[in-house]
Amino acid sequence: MKREVIKTLDGSTTIQIEGWDECYHSKHGAIQEAKHVFIKNGLSLYENRTVSILEIGFGTGLNAFITFLDAKKLNQTIEYVGVEAYPISAEELISMNYVEELNASAENEVFNKMHECSWEEKVRLSDHFSLTKRKQLFSDIDDIDKFDLIYFDAFGYKVQPELWSTAIFKKMYDSLKSEGVLVTYAARGVVKRSMIEVGFTVEKLEGPPGKREMFRARKSQ
Fold first, then answer.
1. Is residue 22 part of a domain?
2. What residues are paired with 96 via a beta bridge?
3. Which ranges in the chain belong to alpha helices (H)?
4. Which of 29, 49, 79, 220 could covalently link to 10 via disulfide, CB atoms 3.0 to 4.6 Å apart?
5. 136 assigned to some structural domain
6. Nearest residue to 134 (alpha-carbon basis) of 20, 40, 50, 57
7. Percent helix, strand, coil in the chain (nearest 5)?
8. Average pLDDT, the chain
9. Would residue 51 count as lying in a domain?
10. CA pair distance 120, 109, nearest whole angstrom
């Protein structure tokens, strides 16, 4: 399917898959969405801690890069695992303007290294942040009690409902430590029911710009 790099309403870029009418990040603002969903309602819960994070859909690297930047402010040490079965191309990467839009030119090398580093290998990007990229289907994830926080950023339910199934959320539940948290931009009833079915406690929160609501789920055990 044809893919195109577009600008979102906050000036930051994303990739649009035209055949699906689906984007890697919100058209209403890629950076705004990432900060609201994953940082404000996820990462910020773990201030002054070591945090292990699993990202479902590494994609453009935006969520990982913002986490790298904000972890310094939150006094955190991050162990980050990004799962991605279909990495973006070098041409698409060049078109991403996150470093400029985040005023993070001093960390440009870090953003590039996030994409250039080898898959299946833990890479230390700073004293406070390590990254492991796994080229893997979400259905093949088999971690047990490993993560404090999951960024669930798969493509939307309307185009890939199988990624929002009870089977996938069971894998997410098993991957989390006790009291671990999963955050996602989604707020569909069918998604909530699947989360609850596998054991999550789910709360509905205010959504990012352009979206009324989002979910945060907790593993209480």
1. no
2. none
3. 30-34, 62-73, 90-94, 98-101, 108-116, 166-175, 189-198
4. 29
5. yes
6. 57
7. 35, 30, 35
8. 97
9. yes
10. 20
> How many Å apart are CA 206 and CA 37, to the nearest integer?
9
For 7, 43, 90, 152, 156, the CA distances from 26, given in Å and listed in that order, are: 10, 19, 21, 14, 11
Tell me the C-alpha distance between 151 and 123, whole Å: 20
- Domain assignment present for residue 113? The answer is yes
Distances (CA, A) of 119 to 60, 101, 147: 15, 27, 19
Prediction pTM value: 0.97
Cα–Cα distances (Å) from 154 to 25, 27, 50, 149, in that order, read: 10, 15, 25, 15
| Residue linked to tokens 């870029």 | 13
In CATH, what number is assigned to the domain containing residue 131?
Answer: 3.40.50.150
| Domain extent for 57 | 29-218
pLDDT, tens digit, 9 for 90 and up, residues 53-106: 999 999 999 999 999 999 999 999 999 999 999 999 999 999 999 999 999 999
Phi, psi of 125 (to 5 degrees): -90, -20
**How many domains is the chain built from?**
1
Q: How many residues does the chain have?
A: 221
- 52 forms beta bridges with 79
pLDDT at site 85: 96
